[in-house]
Design a protein that fits this description.
four-stranded antiparallel sheet; two-stranded antiparallel ribbon
Length: 115
């Protein structure tokens, strides 16, 4: 499964895992279930690459031969639009806060307050 791994600022790699940062060579970051559970317990978060829907058209994750993910943010821009982020594999960017119409179908990421 392709996606983006987010790490906390003070993160320590678990002993039995390897990690290669950056957008290039991301396919080297492959984990067994046990390894990912260790990564996650150390604070790693995984955002799966996923397409999106606009009207009745589905755009898959490999549009334009690039793997990308699209996620709604919790901030609404105005009555009809909201902020979202997307990331593209093999390009060095993650674009914050573009705005699109609320009618677009994108992924959401549920979060839990750890306090």
């Amino acid at each position: 499964m392709t996606g983006l791994i987010l790490l906390p600022d003070s993160w320590t790699l678990p002993d039995s895992c390897q990690f290669w940062p950056g957008m290039y060579g991301y396919e080297r970051n492959q984990y067994s279930m046990e390894q990912w559970q260790l990564m996650e317990s150390a604070g790693a978060v995984f955002l799966r690459a996923g397409g999106y829907r606009w009207g009745s058209t589905i755009y898959y994750i490999d549009r334009w031969d690039l793997t990308h993910g699209n996620y709604w943010l919790s901030t609404q821009y105005d009555e009809n639009d909201a902020h979202y982020i997307y990331f593209i594999a093999n390009l060095e960017n993650m674009l914050p806060n573009p705005v699109t119409n609320l009618a677009a179908g994108m992924q959401v990421r549920l979060v839990r307050d750890m306090k």
